[in-house]
Queue: 2 jobs
Job 1
Amino acid sequence: MTSLRTRHRLIRRLREQGISDPQVLSVMEQIPRHIFVEEALAHRSYEDIALPIGHGQTISQPYIVARMTELLIADGVPHTVLEIGTGCGYQTAVLVALGCQVYSIERIRPLQLEAIERLNTLHFDRVNFRYADGAVGWPERAPFDAIITTAAPSQVPQALVNELAVGGRMVIPLGLDEQQLCLIRRTTTGIEQQMFDAVIFVPMLSGIR
Ligand code: SAH
């Protein structure tokens, strides 16, 4: 159920759905997604679905992880990436496997601690973690070449735009009831915004828990 063959099948399905970036497909083929979910759900971990990870949160559907990552690295793999919403750490692992220096913020402490332990066990151990409300970003470490949020605010937090390097990309789900993936590019003169797939994400909440 959690074998390499099941993982290959998932990658084949992602390809059929239009994911074409060889680096994204290759790292997702390598990362054992079943380690990121509860044991009781491990047998469903290579289906293309979101799954609960506790505390009312979910691990994103593999297609969405692939799609967001593809958009994030379309101009080349960014050196530094700020991630808002560590959750179980699966997206974090994808970014580390691509070679990014990841700064990851989570507002639910138990989820963060589990993710740190899991990522260390899997030797994805070059990540910088912060327990905070990610809407303000991580100004001490800014600017970032890329920013990805895996929780949806209703509008792009201005602090995150400010922390994006010129030439950098941000991929963020936006909206309350109806959400869409949004790609923001910071140029020398301002920002460019493009909308993509309709998505369903947990909301970006303020404060820590
Ligand atoms: N990429 C994660 C997604 C988890 S769901 C995964 O695949 O597991 C979204 C996560 O964003 C949750 O863990 C939630 O606690 C976190 N989150 C929501 N609002 C946040 C905020 N303002 N700052 C930091 N994390 C936040």
Note: The two ends are 34 Å apart (CA to CA).
Job 2
Amino acid sequence: MTAKDEHIAVTRFREFLRVKTVQPKPDYVGCEAFLKKYAEELGLAYTGVECVKGKPICILTWAGTDASLPSIMLNCHSDVVPVSADKWTHDPFAADKLENGDIIARGAQDMKCVGIQYLEAIRILKQQQKVQLKRTLHVTFVPDEEIGGQDGMKLFVKTDDYKKLNIGFALDEGLANPGDAYKVFYGERAPWWLTITAKGKAGHGSQFLEPSATVRLLKVLNRFLAFRDSESNRLKHGRTAKSVPFQLGDVTTTNITILKAGVQHNVVPETASAGIDIRVAPTVDLNAFKEMIEGWCAEQDVGIEYVNTFWSNATTAPEDHNPWWRLLKGVAEKRKVDLEPEIFPAATDSRYIREIGIPAFGISPMRNTPVLLHDHDEYLNERVFLDGVDFYTDLVPALANNTEELVER
Ligand code: ZN
């Protein structure tokens, strides 16, 4: 296929992939310029909000006909993770397209494809189908998701600019699926990064010095390891209420990632510490969990520091009482695509949205596609990409014309 007869959506996708929004120094200026021009092309209103200077939240808005209904946020993060260029067979920012339609670039799956799919669906709805939607749509492109969203979504949801958008429901990213279904992420595990520190008596390594910092630390770490084993077992044998085998997102993972103690073999250290990465499953009561680990530490008089801890593991029910789920399911059925609801194994910006009580699903419509996010030679086939545009062309009006809100139970 020559560039001349390439689908406009594919052309815009490849253009966006060439904007080097790669961490640690993303080209957010180039990104904003690209999106502003895009908004103009599609006849969408453009607003730029900066919670932190130089890190714009780009909002492309299509006003609905009924301002009394809360709006819909279609979210995409604009940054991508770094590359090891020597491991790639193509320039990761050239967005080369192979004979078979594979488009190779950093961000092809995570998640520039989705941002362009939203906008190209809007192009079809606006310009070809000439429809008018009830609810307002805000397509948001947020910075720094790949480094935790601290200067992006985390701050944005607390601003008046965000409140003014009056968002009632959000879509965000998911993952590719090698199988034939779309994964729908309805919750995430809460990341907890802890440092625990034990203190003891220092001295010559030839004695029984009590209390011992390393002994105390190890006793506590053994508690964490026993818990790790039991969760690993649950992952192997557990099943959800619907009898689906557990996925990683259904259990809590614990990893001791940092260990520090001592300077010399014959000197008993005064302090010993460990860094622990825990991802707490949404089924866990966070307060009870906190009490449990603080209890383990208290037994050995070990201090605990919450380095980076997310205190919410709210989910959005993938159940029929939730109108947003029903609509998503209805569109998928019409398009003959199965949906697989799951807990996201890592963290995305959706957690900040759900934390403030807004229902959100994470979905990246890529099936029969290997999971290549953050990997070398990340690619997406243009047929899969265009199928995703069609998916949103069906889904967006279903959501935007919905007049029901989710009543939690
Ligand atoms: Zn992502």
Note: The chain has a mean pLDDT of 96.
